[in-house]
Amino acid sequence: MRATDEVAAAPGIHVQGIKKSFGTQVVLDGVDLEVPRGHITVVIGRSGTGKSVLLKHVMGLLRPDAGTIRVGDDDLATLGPRALRQVRFRFGMVFQHAALFDSMDVYENVAFPLREHGFKTAAGQRKMREPEIKARVEEMLGAVGLTGVGAKGVSELSGGMRKRVGLARALVRDPEFLLYDEPTTGLDPIMTAQIDNLIRGTQDRNPGITSLVISHDMAATFRIADHVAMLYEGRVRLYGTPEEFRHTDDPVVRQFVEGRLDGPITV
Amino acid sequence: MNPVSALGHSIIAWVEAFGGYLQFVGRAGVSGLLPPYRTRLLLKHMHFVGVQSLTIVIITGLFTGMVFAIQAEIGFSQFGANGLIGGIVALSLTRELSPVLTALMVNGRVGSSMAAELGTMRVTEQIDALESMAIDPLQYLVAPRLLAAVIMVPALNMIFNLIGLAGCWYVAVKQLRVPEGGFWDRIWWYVDADDIVGGCIKAAVFGFILASVGCYQGFTTRGGAEGVGRATTTAVVVAGVLILTGDYFLTRILAPLSVG
To answer: What is the CATH number that goes with domain A1-90+176-188+209-260?
Structure first.
């Protein structure tokens, strides 16, 4: 079996029938979603449709009222806090506003996961010495085009630089699953294209990574996605390739993709 | 909503908040007992709570001792008992004034800062980021702050005692001409080790209250800058009230021990 076939055969993220309400507000109402291993899946939808809530379920930060979430071979609903933490070892997450620790500089932010957990090896976690950490952090900062900014404080960074540092931090421990929460929100079109390139390039360089991206930017979605799912009224309205989204007859999906005011989606 | 219903809702909300606080403190305590032990973070927070509060504690202690000496002299001079000033001020400082005033001053500086810092981390998703990296935020953020306050507020309380006594000595002996020998004799006569230990126990409890309330308010912050501001104010007010009411109950508990 070739390496890419092995990647494709390994289980990715499997979401089945999850429901979640906050008080009387139903946010997710039976979401089914397949995130295949080694691909980028983008979840789109209007603001407030539960995209970030779905992401927090995948990370095990929220428990569903009903339904199951499988990450690889693990069923998150059956895991206790300690086992959930073990699952999170396998994740990297890029937050909407980067969520960098403002008490640390750029270098310390990227080095933080390595200092806490070391680096994963076939035998498990391995503590790293400072020269190894330094080399790895510089490698990751170089990969996101930020060589030489390690000593800068977080407050000195632009929005685009913050997102790239966030991506470097998410990648530094070589995760199996990479989650992005609206990675291009608030960025100018050039910086958006650069972040999209980074997401696509990261995936192409690391075919073992499974990426799940939350977005409402259709241009970015068509640039990076292997698969797209649209959340609407608490469920997945359409799941398919970017091509299928371009040519669908579903009026709800068409209105969202084309960004029109008139249509079944009311403002 | 009718008044009875409104009262019922506010009681339920209060009970829920108190239950949430107890659960938070319990979980933070358990997390702090489990490895990895974060010594470096503990030292950092001890420096912040203790060393960086020294100036306000010294100023407050000095002027408390000085003003109390003046007030005591006004009372005692009416029946020629000026020699009691040192003993009475020392007793008041060690048992009540020092732990309470130290805790209130540290609460204003440290409790508010903890609420604001953790609140900002909450609304900017930094706490979620810790969780996503498989790090227990209660162990990383809360446990070292709680332990630092429990260790350092009693230490600051002892410094308040010493500085307050020095201020009292200066006013009583140097300005009001109270005989120095009698001043010190009365202090040794009135103040026991139990008084000092009791004051330190109070200070440790107050340190725990101000840090746990500050961390809880910060940790449960919702809604941007306004939420952080609300959490900070609530932390200072709630911890201040708990320190003053808790002082009464602690005094009831500790007083018989001291007499015994």
So the answer is: 3.40.50.300
